[in-house]
Amino acid sequence: ISPYTNQRDDEFGGSIENMAKILVDIFYQIRDELGKKFPITIKLQTNDSVPGGLTLDTSSKIAEILAKTGFDAIEPSGGLYESQLMTKNPYPSKIIKSPEDENYFLPTAKILKPLINDSKLILVGGIKDPLSADKILNDNQADFISMCRPLIYEPDLPNRWKNGDLSPAKCTSCSSCLVVMRKGPVYCVTKKNLEKNS
To answer: Could you please report the per-residue DSSP string of 20-53?
Structure first.
């Protein structure tokens, strides 16, 4: 759906509606195959961070189309491989150095949520603190919380929080796990190095 990479001039390129068409077509194919009770969610690119790429303004319109189509939930995300190359950053996710850096797709979620009334919103991106995540849900800024890197470091993290240990996720957000994933099985590089040196 990115105009940066989608240079097609057929029914799947050009206009916002055309770029969204492949997602709409996939939705209806899944719905036809699996029925109305099967939940269909989508992780939606919202900002490419490259000149001529997808912007939040365009992706907001696409999100509206997807919600009206019937997607049960939308998870806003951002960045693409080309943006990593252009910024010389080998890692595809933002580095988190302080609590202020956490929940970095929350501003995007706040814009999208009123536009997708027919769909739930899943928040991902730098979520490390259970109290912060709980507040986001209680304030109706998101309907679900999604995590990736913290669960690579601590697969049992949700149970730790559920059992009363509310300290933040131990993940350092270095994103090395997403680099090694391109070459083989995913694992936490930081945790593996700590175990080697202990």
So the answer is: HHHHHHHHHHHHHHH-TTS--EEEEE----STTS
Q: What digits encode the pLDDT tens for the residues 10-34?
A: 999 999 999 999 999 999 999 999 9
Tally of domains within the chain: 1
Domain span at residue 70 reads 16-146
* Domain membership flag for residue 7: no
pTM (predicted TM-score): 0.88
Q: What is the DSSP string of 64-104?
A: HHHHHHT-SEEEEE---HHHHHHHT---SS----SGGGSST
Give the CATH number, domain containing residue 121: 3.20.20.70
3-class DSSP state of 123: strand
